[in-house]
Design goal:
The complex is a heterotrimer of chains A (about 300), B (about 325) and C (about 325).
Chain A lengths: L13 H39 L5 H5 L15 H32 L2 H16 L2 H13 L6 H26 L2 H9 L4 H30 L2 H4 L20 H10 L3 H38 L2
Helix pairs in contact in A: 1-11, 3-6, 3-8, 3-10, 4-6, 5-6, 6-8, 7-8, 8-11, 10-11
Chain B lengths: L36 H9 L12 E12 L2 E12 L3 E5 L6 H7 L10 E9 L2 E2 L7 H7 E4 L10 H11 L6 H11 L3 H4 L12 H14 L4 E5 L7 H14 L4 E5 L3 H7 L2 E9 L5 E10 H6 L4 H7 L5
Parallel strand pairs in B: 2-10, 3-8, 3-9, 6-7, 7-8
Antiparallel strand pairs in B: 1-2, 1-4, 4-5, 9-10
Helix pairs in contact in B: 1-9, 4-5, 4-7, 5-7, 7-8
Chain C lengths: L15 H43 L9 E2 L4 E2 L2 H32 L2 H16 L2 H28 L14 H25 L3 H9 L4 H30 L2 H6 L17 H7 L7 H39 L1
Antiparallel strand pairs in C: 1-2
The chains are: A mainly alpha (about 300), B alpha/beta (about 325), C mainly alpha (about 325).
Chain lengths: ~300, ~325, ~325
């Protein structure tokens, strides 16, 4: 090491300073990007709140939808709320048992190759555009039978299935092997171990997956277009008939020139947004907590 | 292999302790002939306690240095000088803060939120933590080799060239890469496959690649954090040989938990230990430092003696 | 051992009952897997079947035809394919750098205390129902962008032919913006995870050589996760291609290619959504299904490619470890 041309550290070369400055610029841009993303979220929420709150009144929940906003007649979304609840319930009733069973098969019984294929298939299903799912169910169930809430429920359940199955499988895999072995060592059969030891440990995660799936289904519009597109301005509880739904009210309101329709759309959007965002957040927080709890049993 | 690579222009070396075999030591008194491990270590270290720091100016001067993480003191009140062109070893039981201290010498602790360094760390008479000191330039001059080899998932060539490109030392890139690889005694083994991935090398080769990578940017000091602990004995040997050669041009500080290694390789050794305060809090302290063989043969502090004779740690 | 009366024990044999439990569970869950398989097959089959009349009628010329006319019963998807590509690629152009930047921010720059909350907020962006985003897009963002942002761009960049035109609160540009909002959370959350998993060894090695934090990200972290980022981008691409609702709400639903980015257009997915209300002829319905077939094929290819890349990257990392 030559001592000839020694440069003191302080105030070192221009090149290093330039690199430092450039680094700061890029870090600033990254921070800006995050800020913009959150700002957009905030703006959307605030806009929906601003436009929706004024229209939020008792009428909204007690009146049914009306066409062309004839005063004194309707002006609410009661039938849409009921419709969404029923259709989401049907969808969840299909997707959760199916998804949980699928997850159990994939994590407990399937050989590794098969489990991989199942996972790939679920990922593919998750990537299918929801409008295509709508077209699929249309051909399968609607043609010849007419629109119905059942068809909508089936379509929504297809959208939910990958969500439920993947989350449940993740949770099941988190359950430590030692628990399984403990159950079987006590003489419990595979089935009994799964049902009485593993599932109860994982139940938190399954509940969470359900909440997230419900939030997802409630907000989907495309599958509804082809399965329950035209609906009556009345409360319908028969699932073999088409029902109104909140996303469709919003959709139609967004395309309508009528100020009244738009008002109702905003109010409906507020209700939907609040419900979905709360559902997703709760789901996410619960999943973090249940994951931590399971890992503590390791 | 102990030839010293001496590029032109290097001032002639002053006396260094002879580290080949135990031939130099006077015969130990008969009653302690074979029993005392300190004597074996002392013999490894050269068997005499001439001060190797004579003629070597200081490169680091630490005054009252303490390092803490979010309030918890990891090591405190360190006063020591580290000298040029020597190998200085930090030894001691785990948890005594040797790695923490090492990392504060190239300001790598800056990356840990809550890390704080008190006292003065002086590098060639400049305050390393001064307000106008650029940590990036610090790390160019004070390089580091880690415990587990961490080559980038790039080609061997690109691994070595990484630092060169970063710091704009791009003239004669090929030549610089070759020189660095020769310095790290890796050139002959890889010269035909410079485009191969750095990860395709064996453990010992990967570590030498990391050393070459550090050498390429012409540092002044090389910090090594247990560089051979993840390697097999043969690779360890090659790393130790390399350290022996490198000190001709660089100042080397090496943290090791292996006393034999310190004895073989280091000119100066500093022994750290853990101190338990009245409130039960533990922090590392510098117990003793000095020429390696003296530390092993005639340690001044009873804690040092206890450690080197294996009574604890 | 003293002789003791053995406690009542069931004989070792004769426990078939519990085995049946195992079989039953295996059977039921296996059935679920079969259902999944059937579902996928049925999906492809059914959509293709619905599209069959149109496929028969137009064949490959569907992809090049530009007319979409319910009166003359002639349908062609070329302008729709073009619209799909322009809007999706345009959205990616904005979303990808932004998402990677957000991923870097969340994994490296943000103070630890705010990392989780900000991550959750970014992911919440993905939870906004697309119909709500579309409503906001056409009624709030549209007018705002048309008044303040589009004129600015036209004034300063209007010399590029495609960017010259009249501001509008509908059209390709609005669709691009809306799709960007949908793609960002997907790519950003995957990027964040990828960056967080870069071994600290590698990062420290780079910094110890004197790299600045940005240089470390650029020269070590991004190359390290490269494949994963590509997979994430493809996932985002797939999302953008398939979005029907929000796009149809803001894009203006035109039948032909606009002259500029400000004009109305249509994409494959949004055309299907736009004509849900009722199709005039059988052929029209089949043509919409044909569009669905194309979308299905696109999404399958994109998704499988993304999974392939992600899988290969995971194997490479495990191999190198």
């Amino acid at each position: 090491m030559s001592t000839a041309s020694y440069q003191p550290l302080a105030g070192s070369s221009g090149r290093a300073a330039r690199r430092r400055r450039w680094g700061k610029v890029m870090e600033g841009l990254a921070t800006l990007a995050a800020i913009v993303a959150i700002a957009v979220l905030a703006i959307v929420i605030i806009s929906v709140a601003k436009k929706g709150l004024p229209a939020l009144n008792v009428d909204l929940f007690t009146q049914v939808t009306s066409t062309f906003g004839i005063p004194g007649q309707g002006g609410g979304i009661k039938n849409a709320i009921i419709g969404t609840v029923i259709m989401t319930a049907i969808a969840t009733a299909i997707s959760v048992p199916l998804g949980v069973l699928l997850a159990i098969f994939s994590s407990e019984f399937a050989p590794a190759r098969l489990a991989l294929i199942i996972r790939i298939t679920l990922n593919v299903l998750a990537g299918v555009p929801t409008i295509v799912i709508g077209v699929f169910v249309f051909g399968l169930l609607v043609v010849g039978n007419g629109y119905s809430a059942y068809a909508a429920g089936v379509a929504l359940s297809i959208v939910q299935l990958p969500v439920v199955a993947r989350s449940t499988e993740e949770v099941l895999l988190l359950v430590p092997h030692s628990l399984r072995e403990a159950g079987m060592a006590l003489g419990a059969s595979r089935a009994r171990t799964v049902l009485t030891v593993i599932l109860p440990t994982a139940v938190g995660g399954i509940v969470t997956a359900t909440i997230v799936a419900v939030a997802r289904a409630a907000g989907e519009t495309a599958p509804l277009l082809f399965t329950t597109g035209i609906f009556a301005n009345a409360v319908v509880t028969d699932p073999t008939k088409p029902m109104a739904s909140i996303p469709l009210v919003i959709f139609q309101g967004s395309e309508s020139p009528s100020a009244h329709d738009q008002e109702v759309a905003w109010a409906a959007a507020l209700v939907l947004l609040v419900g979905v965002l709360i559902g997703s957040s709760v789901g996410r927080l619960l999943s973090l907590r249940s994951r931590r709890r399971i890992e503590q049993t390791r | 292999m102990s030839e010293t690579i001496r590029p032109e222009g290097t001032p002639p070396m002053t006396d260094q302790p002879d580290q080949t075999a135990a031939g130099n030591s006077p015969d130990p008194p008969p009653e302690v002939a074979s029993a005392r491990p300190t004597t074996q270590l002392g013999e490894l270290a050269g068997g005499h306690d001439d001060d190797p720091t004579v003629g070597h100016p200081t490169v680091f001067e630490l005054e009252n240095v303490s390092v803490s993480y979010s309030g918890m003191v990891a090591i405190r009140d360190v006063d020591m000088d580290i000298h040029c062109n020597l190998v200085t070893a930090f030894i001691g039981p785990s948890g005594c803060g040797k790695t923490t201290l090492l990392r504060s010498l190239n300001r790598l602790n800056d990356l840990i939120p809550g890390a704080a360094v008190e006292g003065r760390v002086s590098y060639r008479s400049e305050d390393l933590y001064g307000a106008d000191i650029d940590a990036v330039e610090v790390r160019r001059r004070i390089g580091m080799v880690f415990q587990r080899p961490n080559p980038f998932p790039k080609s061997i060539y690109d691994n070595v060239a990484y630092g060169l490109r970063l710091h704009g030392m791009k003239d004669d890139l090929d030549g610089r890469v070759e020189r660095a690889l020769r310095h790290a005694v890796l050139w002959d083994e890889v010269k035909d496959r410079l485009k191969a991935s750095g990860l395709s090398l064996s453990g010992g080769q990967q570590q030498r690649l990391c050393i070459a990578r550090a050498l390429a940017i012409e540092p002044d000091v090389i910090l090594m954090d247990e560089p051979a602990s993840a390697l097999d004995p043969i690779s360890t040997q090659s790393i130790e040989d390399l350290v022996e050669q490198l000190k001709a041009e660089y100042s080397i500080i090496i943290v090791t938990h292996n006393m034999q290694q310190a004895a073989r390789v280091a000119d100066v050794t500093a022994f750290f230990s853990v101190d338990v305060a009245e409130d039960g809090s533990r922090s590392g302290v510098l117990v003793e430092q000095g020429p390696t063989s003296k530390l092993f043969i005639r340690p001044s502090d009873p804690r040092t003696e206890a450690y080197v004779t294996g009574r604890f740690g | 051992m003293a002789t003791e009366t053995p406690t009542q024990r069931l004989p070792l044999s004769g426990h078939r009952r519990t085995r049946y439990g195992d079989l039953a569970l295996r059977g039921i869950t296996g059935l679920a897997a079969v259902v999944l398989g059937l579902l996928m097959v049925a999906l492809v089959y059914e959509v293709a079947r619905e599209a069959w009349p149109s496929i028969q009628e137009f064949g490959a010329s569907f992809l090049t035809g530009t007319e979409w006319n319910a009166v003359t019963d002639v349908y062609g998807a070329r302008d729709l394919i073009w619209g799909t590509l322009i809007t999706s690629l345009g959205a990616l152009l904005i979303a990808v750098p932004m998402s990677i930047a957000i991923g870097v921010f969340l994994s490296e720059l943000a103070p630890r205390a705010i990392r989780t909350p900000v991550t959750m907020l970014v992911e919440l962006l993905a939870a906004i129902p697309s119909v709500v985003l579309g409503l906001w897009g056409i009624l709030v963002m549209g007018p705002f962008v048309a008044q303040h942002i589009e004129p600015f761009i036209i004034d300063h960049f209007g010399w590029i032919p495609f960017l010259d035109g009249y501001p509008s609160n509908q059209g390709l540009f609005m669709a691009i913006l809306v799709l960007t909002i949908m793609v960002v959370p997907i790519v950003a959350s995957v990027s964040r995870e990828l960056f967080t998993n870069v071994p600290s060894d590698l990062k420290q090695g780079s910094l110890a050589l004197g790299a600045t934090r940005w240089e470390m990200v650029r020269s070590v972290m991004i190359p390290q996760v490269g494949g994963g980022l590509v997979a994430a981008v493809m996932l985002g691409f797939g999302r953008a291609i398939g979005e029907a609702i929000a796009v149809t709400q803001v894009i203006g639903g035109s039948n032909s290619r606009p002259d500029s980015i400000w004009g109305p257009a249509d994409t494959m997915a949004s055309r299907i959504a736009a004509q849900y209300a009722g199709t005039a002829t059988h052929l029209q319905r089949a043509s919409l299904a044909y569009l669905a077939v194309l979308l299905l094929a696109f999404s399958l290819i994109v998704n499988l490619t993304a999974q392939l890349i992600a899988g290969r990257m995971q194997r490479r990392m495990r191999g190198a470890a």
